[in-house]
Amino acid sequence: MNRDSPVVLEISVIEAAHLADLVGQFAELLAESPTDGSLLPDDPALARLVPDAYRDDAAAAREFRALTAADLLQRRQDEAVAVLQDLSPDGEPWDTGGLSDDELTETVEIRLPRARAQAWLRTLNALRLVLATRLGIDTDDDHDDGDPRFGIYDWLGYRLDGLVAALDA
Amino acid sequence: MSIALPDIDEVTRSDERVDPERPWQTVVWNDPVNLMTYVVHVFREYFGHPPEVATRLMLAVHHEGRAVVSEGPREQMELHAQAMHDYGLWATVQQAPQ
């Protein structure tokens, strides 16, 4: 494993546009959710990102959250914004409206230094956690093949898995 | 050899369940979302474990529902738990069972 070489992520234009849309929504969700750190976020999807660190000691769990939650959620937001920048290097949102099928399936190469790839991993994984909460995934068997949102969830997992493989190669 | 006994005034945590003789642990819990490959990667990246150790820990989480990933002082275990939360893993801190 070369710990210095960047990883190259190859995704299609249509995937990059979808991903930018999802990550953008995630960043907005985080931005709209002010937390003073000591409280569990009202939104269960955000609460999943700052879980209890003590199972049988509510006071210790509260104290831990007060010290860590605001920082963790801020990091999620900063890293989501970083991923968005990587996805649209010119800073413009993807506009796929006028593109042909060929153009939509063209491959985009995204070069990520290793530290940045870690931010991508955490962001993709956090997105999956948020989607899983929205979809009510509580066990390994909670999956509805007919629901397109599960398709997005699986696709994020596929991309996350590929990025992990590239980093650990 | 002299044995330094802890001064009672030095005990800053008042929790009576805290037994200074028992180490603290960081525990990672199973969940249906985090991919197995991702969990292995996190254990390698953060703890610096070789692949086989990281994989063994991941399998313990997956099959037994939880695994102790570190043991030591409480503050250190809280740092580990925070790092695991940063990666989206569900980690808790506890004192080692009697």
Q: Give the mean pLDDT of chain B.
A: 87
Indicate the multimeric state. Answer: heterodimer
- Summarize the main sheet of chain A: 2 strands, antiparallel
Average pLDDT rating of chain A = 88
Strand order of the largest sheet of chain A: 1-2
Number of strands of chain A: 2
Treating each run of at least 4 consecutive H or I residues as one helix, how many helices of chain B?
A: 3
Tally of separate domains of chain A:
1
Q: Based on the structure given, which CATH architecture of the domain at 35-98 in chain B is correct?
A: 2-Layer Sandwich
Unreliably modeled segments of chain A: none
Written account of the structure:
The complex is a heterodimer of chains A (169) and B (98). Chain A has helices at 13-31, 44-47, 58-87, 101-104, 114-135, 148-168; strands at 7-12, 107-112. With 169 residues, chain A is mainly alpha-helical. Chain A has one domain (7-168). A two-stranded antiparallel sheet of chain A has the order 1-2. The longest helix of chain A is centred in the middle third of the chain and has 30 residues, at 58-87. Chain A is globular and about 55 Å long. Chain B is α+β, with helices and mostly antiparallel strands. Chain B has a domain at 35-98: Ribosomal Protein L30, Chain: A (2-Layer Sandwich), CATH 3.30.1390.10. In chain B, 40% of the residues lie in helices and 19% in strands. Chain B has 3 helices and 3 strands. Chain B has helices spanning 36-47, 51-64, 74-86, and strands spanning 24-29, 66-72, 90-95. A 3-stranded antiparallel β-sheet of chain B has the order 2-1-3. Chain B is globular. Chain B starts with 23 loop residues before the first strand and ends with a strand. Chain A binds chain B through residues 49-57, 60, 64, 68, 72, 75, 118, 121-122, 125-126, 128-129, 132, 137-140, 142, 157, 160-161, 164-165, 167-168, and chain B through 15, 32-35, 37-38, 40-41, 44-45, 51, 78, 81-82, 85-88, 90-94.
